[in-house]
């Protein structure tokens, strides 16, 4: 059962994705109804900020196994989702044009 409490910040939860279907459909990083992250988008969000999964888990103060479960699309509790979003906000994604 998912914990009840603070909802994760809405920033980054959903929004238009460049190159989406062009029909206004939005893809989401986290689905609050069932507590699941989109595995591919979460991994890209972590790696594009220059972290490995293990490093990200340390900074987010969550067990690596918990993060790996999120990366396989399994549900997370609200506290874990909050820590993931707070940690993602600590770094901006790298600009690939600068490399």
Brief summary:
With 99 residues, the protein is mainly alpha-helical. 36% of the residues lie in helices and 8% in strands.
Summarize the SSE layout with pairings.
Elements: E1 14-15, E2 27-28, E3 30-31, E4 36-37, H1 39-47, H2 53-60, H3 64-71, H4 78-88
Antiparallel strand pairs: 1-2, 3-4
Helix pairs in contact: 2-3, 2-4
- Shape field: globular
* Spatial extent as radius of gyration: 13 Å
Major sheet details = 2 strands, antiparallel
**Order of helix and strand elements from N to C terminus:** EEEEHHHH
Q: Strand arrangement, largest sheet? A: 1-2
Number of helices: 4
Strand content: 5-15%
Structural class: mainly alpha
Helix content: 25-40%
Give average pLDDT, whole number.
81
- Low-pLDDT stretches: 8-25
| Record field, number of beta strands | 4
Tell me the distance between the termini. Answer: 44 Å
Describe this protein's structure.
With 99 residues, the protein is mainly alpha-helical. It has four helices and four strands, in the order E-E-E-E-H-H-H-H. Strands 1-2 form a two-stranded antiparallel ribbon. A two-stranded antiparallel sheet has the order 3-4. Strand 3 (30-31) and strand 4 form a beta hairpin. Helix 2 packs across helix 3 and helix 2 (53-60) packs across helix 4 (78-88). The longest helix is centred in the last third of the chain and has 11 residues, at 78-88. It is globular and about 35 Å long. Mean pLDDT is 81; it is low at 8-25.
């Amino acid at each position: 059962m998912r914990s009840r409490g603070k909802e994760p910040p809405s920033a980054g939860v959903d929004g238009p994705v460049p190159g989406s279907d062009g029909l206004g459909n939005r893809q989401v990083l986290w689905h609050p109804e069932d507590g699941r992250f989109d595995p591919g988008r979460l991994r890209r969000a972590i790696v594009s900020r220059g972290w490995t999964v293990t490093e990200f888990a340390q900074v987010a103060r969550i067990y690596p196994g918990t993060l790996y479960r999120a990366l396989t699309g399994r549900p997370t509790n609200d506290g874990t989702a909050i820590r993931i979003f707070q940690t993602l906000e600590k770094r901006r994604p790298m600009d690939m044009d600068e490399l």
